[in-house]
Amino acid sequence: MNTSKDTLQRFLFENISIRGELTQLHKSWQAVTENHHYPPVVRDVLAQMLVAGVLLAATLKFKGRIILQIQGKGALPLVVAECTSEEAIRGLAHYSDDIKADSLKNLVGDGQLAITLETENKTERYQSIVELVGETVADAIEHYLETSEQLSTRLWLTANAKTAAGLLIQKLPQESVDEESLHQVQADEDGWNRVEQLSATISDDELLGLDVYEVIHRLYHEEDVRLFESEPVFFRCTCSKDRVANMLRGLGQSEVDAIIDSEKLISIHCEFCNHQYDFDAVDAKLLFTNSLLTGNSPTQH
Ligand SMILES: [Zn+2]
Which CATH number is 241-295's, of 3.90.1280.10, 3.10.20.310, 3.90.170.10, 2.40.128.50? Predict the structure, then answer.
């Protein structure tokens, strides 16, 4: 039975240069959509982006995060999915009210896929942007990895209101393949085709309903698979009163005073977690008089 844990399971095919990952998100996925009322078509794309984010974040070699973003001019102009190296996720989508089910390319409309890698302190940032290609999120990301990273990868992504799940298989980069002999590479080609065909037999219901060990057994019981320790995935928003205060300081005192004069209150709403940060006239004054005082404000995580 499904134990309903939010988990990332990495695995490796012994003797074939292929790695795999499987993730299932329950509570963390429900937290992303809580209070958002996304239509099913929007919800599905956001879920698939988040699942892909978790699968790709597992390969981060530094403390930081990966940000997947699709943007365009269609009924779904923006989807953002973030996952940290600790597997903390958050995400959001913008959509028009008359949105109807369609291919990803048509929903986003003349769009792009941007993938950003960022270290925790934001000192290093690497962004790659490609044209949005394909009918699904999996198509778009496979295309990105093939063209930008020269990594042969297959993804199966699926979701419903309660669970989002995905499977990834990827050829290991050549430099990480043991330099044993040339016929090892030959065996890899057969191995890739076989593992790809086995993986493609997974159904959405199985990905969502079986637990990760059952999925791996169901697909690869005739292969020699090494499982790594599974890792928990969770929802966490990085917004805080301090960050909002810094953003307001960036606007400048005259701008902030002008808003207080006309609105009496500055309300900043975090689209990721729906938290609202209110600054009244006193708070606004403190922003520019003593930064140590605002530094003592309780932070929201
Ligand atoms: Zn937030």
Answer: 3.90.1280.10
